[in-house]
Amino acid sequence: VQLQASGGGLVQAGGSLRLSCVASGSILDTNAMGWYRQAPGKQRELVATITRSGSTNYAASVKGRFTISRDNAKNTLYLQMTTLTPEDTAVYFCNAQWTWRPSIVWGQGTQVTVSS
Question: Which of 75, 79, 73 is nearest to 93 (CA)?
């Protein structure tokens, strides 16, 4: 299975973007899916995760501004980002762990740039 992330771009501070991550196979049998980001010179960090049952978890820095969701029928994970700040500038990666596969699958990343 593969993950394809998209939706990144250049946006002004205060703006919004919606990222999408399409899986090549069904996401019904994933334990969890998530979004991570990596800014230049920094380590990759958790943004948000969502379990198969729909439970969500957010990094403190994005809580209340970002919303993670999944559409099982479309095999797609989303990240709705609002009130963006320059500190949100990073490459955003999606990942997923399927029940039948021990290793986590990562998407290729999509660049989000927020200008001040």
Answer: 79
